[in-house]
Amino acid sequence: MKINVSNTAKIQTALDAFNGRATAHTADAAEVAAAAEKAEAALAGVKLRNRRGAVVNALSGQRLSNAYARKGYRVIRTAYTLQRFASGWFLVDLMTVKCYPTEKTGSSPVRVSPAAAADILAAAGVEVDTDLQDFLNSIPTDDDNWIAQENKRMQDKRDAEAKKKQQEADEFLAEIFA
Hints:
By secondary structure, the protein is of the alpha+beta class. It is built from seven helices and five strands.
């Protein structure tokens, strides 16, 4: 999946298909666009060519009161990943997760390449000495590998959830037919 965040209709269609009947606490196209704008603002001071490859993970919804948590309720939320390409921010992954209502929501800090990190330090007025610059340059910048690792982590999480659901279904059927 790779959908430009400016294409709100396509993003909303993907979210609707992914979330099913769940509507409360799930993401919508406006929330995804707002997360992309917030991430772009966090990259202020980074050269345009160094913004490519930045990644943000986000979890939809708002934190709910403790009254819901005490009863053991879980809510369905949308976890999504945004990635910065040369032409802008794109939605690259979606996942439905069940969370306790009091869990933190929102977006993670923007993960950037070493070149972008050097730009951020320079914009902040921090002098980058040669040892730090050598260290930053020694970090592998294979963006595709970095992205693949993140996608694999999210896929493993989805697989674990699916396996857990299958085990619960098997146990339920075993109880019925035992």
